[in-house]
Design a protein that fits this description.
By secondary structure, the protein is of the alpha+beta class. The chain has helices spanning about 50-65, 105-115, 120-125, 135-145, 145-155, 165-170, 180-185, 200-205, 225-230, 240-250, 305-315, 325-330, 370-395, 410-420, 435-445, 450-460, 470-489; strands spanning about 5-10, 15-20, 25-35, 45, 70-80, 85-90, 95, 100, 160, 175-180, 215, 220-225, 235-240, 255-260, 265-270, 285-290, 295-300, 340, 360, 400-405, 425-430, 465. A seven-stranded mixed sheet has the order 16-17-15-14-20-21-22, sandwiched between helices. The protein has a six-stranded mixed sheet with strand order 3-2-1-5-13-12. It has a three-stranded antiparallel sheet with strand order 7-6-9. A hairpin with a 3-residue loop joins strand 1 and strand 2. The longest helix is centred in the last third of the chain and has 25 residues, at about 370-395. It is globular, with a radius of gyration of 22 Å. The protein binds adenosine-5'-diphosphate (ADP).
């Protein structure tokens, strides 16, 4: 009998359930789109009941493909990070729509905290910056603005949590827990702290009593209520999506680095047991917590990656499909001096300039669709190069870069990355590394493997390699052109 691992991958735009064998092969998947709510400019919400119902439906659809619940050895959960749900423990129902990670409604509150001089203390304790991206200020907003949330807090029935916390509550029928990687994105957990910190909760005005217990990411984390799937299934793996992808890429030793190119780009470097202290406006975050022991990561987030290609396709009509950028880029020897700075939503790490805006420089009458498409792909290597420099300044140079995400399918971009970074780039044949990482956590937690290294050894698939082959002169002149354009933006 096969012992399958059921992965629940709750993303920003869709919810999926995936069935893995214990050697890492994905045998079935079920997926449902999620409704995006935009009540005001800069606000993004999800319906937490829809998230739960679709997660449950995806899981139930897969069970027959596994041959029933008895064939599922374990469940692993991975999720969009930082998104916040408030619910009532008395009813088990949400008290408001979930506030999504992209939501900027707490920008003024964050600015106020920065103006009062709190940022450097908060950064050294949590590894994060005072930015609306993180969960804590979203929790405070719910308490300040939603009468039902405030009333539940007064009655002592309020539960606050990120998505894995909400799903686990529903799956187990009442456990209120959060795994350490998700908890480390709230601004309420010290990087070295086992549980949410009372001082940070006071600073942000979030009642500690409403917060979940912080738990490991692998091990006996919980059990599903028997009525959901016909039998109780152990939940043995849990982790935020970027941490799970880092594990799925087998970045399990200090210095190993992955970059995910989806809508945005997220780079994480394994930092080992040392608590990260970045001076270069990179983030420090929990990568794994197993048996109470933590491994940390340094993270750099770039806001615009694949969304630049989407913009070329949907707003400008430069390409008909995302993959056409590759055909166009290959058709010409260079961009003819055209550079795109993709600051369409400001600049993230390492610049953190929210007010910056995008720029296309070097236009001439010779500029056509191919030059624009190629310049868009080149911008990925440049943005990653800026991150590489920030990581290197902190003593964390990259030996190789492991890439994944929808945009990493572009071979031209992958080769250009290797050329501009001047490091080898590796891309797994199976690019669903987030789900694979959750499966590795769950398989290890269910004792199918003694540790994550053994799980990675058994479950990680074949790699495709891209070797740097660019002349230094060409690289230097391209980077000089990028720096000029960046300064102008
Ligand atoms: P997310 O998980 O953030 O929704 P995905 O990992 O699914 O994103 O990646 C989708 C993004 O990658 C889209 O923005 C799309 O424009 C881009 N993309 C997909 N395929 C290619 C390609 N072959 N070349 C360039 N960009 C691509």
């Amino acid at each position: 009998m096969a012992d399958y691992i059921l992965v629940l991958d709750e993303g920003t735009t869709s919810t999926r359930a995936m069935l893995f064998t214990s050697d890492g092969a994905m045998v079935a998947v079920s997926q449902k789109e999620l409704t995006q709510h935009y009540p005001q400019a800069g606000w993004v919400e999800h319906d937490a009941s829809e998230i739960w119902n679709k997660t449950l439906a995806c899981a139930q659809e897969l069970l027959p493909k596994a041959g029933g619940a008895a064939s599922i050895a374990a469940i692993g959960i991975t999720n969009q990070r930082e998104t916040v749900v408030a619910w009532d423990k008395a009813t088990g129902e949400p008290l408001h729509r979930a506030i999504v990670w992209q939501d900027r409604r707490t920008a003024d509150f964050c600015e106020g905290l920065r103006a009062s001089g709190h940022e450097s203390d908060v950064q050294s304790r949590t590894g994060l910056l005072l930015d609306p991206y993180f969960s804590g200020t979203k929790m405070r907003w719910l308490l300040d603005n939603v009468a039902e949330v405030k009333a539940a807090a007064e009655k002592g029935t309020l539960a606050l949590g990120t998505i894995e916390s909400w799903l686990t509550y529903k799956l187990t029928g009442g456990a209120h827990v959060s795994d350490a990687s998700n908890a480390s994105r709230t601004l309420l957990l010290e990087l070295a702290g086992a549980q949410f910190d009372a001082g940070l909760c006071d600073l942000l005005g979030v009642p500690r009593a409403a917060l979940p217990e912080v738990i490991d990411m692998s091990g006996a984390l919980g059990e599903t209520a028997a009525e959901l799937f016909g039998r109780a299934i152990p939940i043995t793996g849990m982790g935020g999506d970027q941490q799970a992808a880092t594990i799925g890429q087998s970045c399990l030793s200090p210095g190993e680095t992955k970059a995910t190119y989806g809508t945005g780009a997220f780079v994480l470097t394994n930092q080992g047991r040392t608590i990260p202290r970045s001076q270069n406006r990179l983030l420090g975050t929990v990568l794994t917590q197993i048996g109470g022991e933590r491994i940390y990561a340094i993270e750099g987030s770039v806001f615009v990656a694949g969304s630049l290609v989407q913009w070329l396709r949907d707003s400008l009509g430069v390409v008909e499909s995302a993959s056409q950028t590759e055909v166009l880029a290959r058709a010409i020897p260079d961009t003819g001096g055209v550079t795109i700075v993709p600051a369409l939503a400001g600049l993230g790490a390492p610049h953190w300039r929210a007010e910056a805006r995008g720029l296309i420089s070097g236009l001439s009458f010779a500029t056509g669709k191919a030059e624009l498409a190629r310049a868009a792909l080149e911008a990925m290597a440049y943005q990653t190069h800026d991150l590489a420099e920030a990581f290197a300044k902190g003593g964390r140079g990259w030996g190789t870069l492991r890439i994944d995400g929808g945009m990493s399918a572009n071979d031209w971009m992958a080769q250009d990355l290797a050329d501009i970074l001047n490091v080898p780039v590796e891309r797994p044949e199976f690019v669903e590394t987030t789900a694979l990482g959750a499966a590795m956590l769950a398989a290890t937690g269910a004792d199918l493997y003694p540790d994550l290294d053994a799980a990675a050894q058994a479950m990680r698939g074949k790699l495709h390699n891209f070797t740097p082959s660019m002349d230094d002169e060409v690289r230097d002149s391209r980077l000089a052109r990028w720096r000029k354009a960046l300064a102008a933006a």
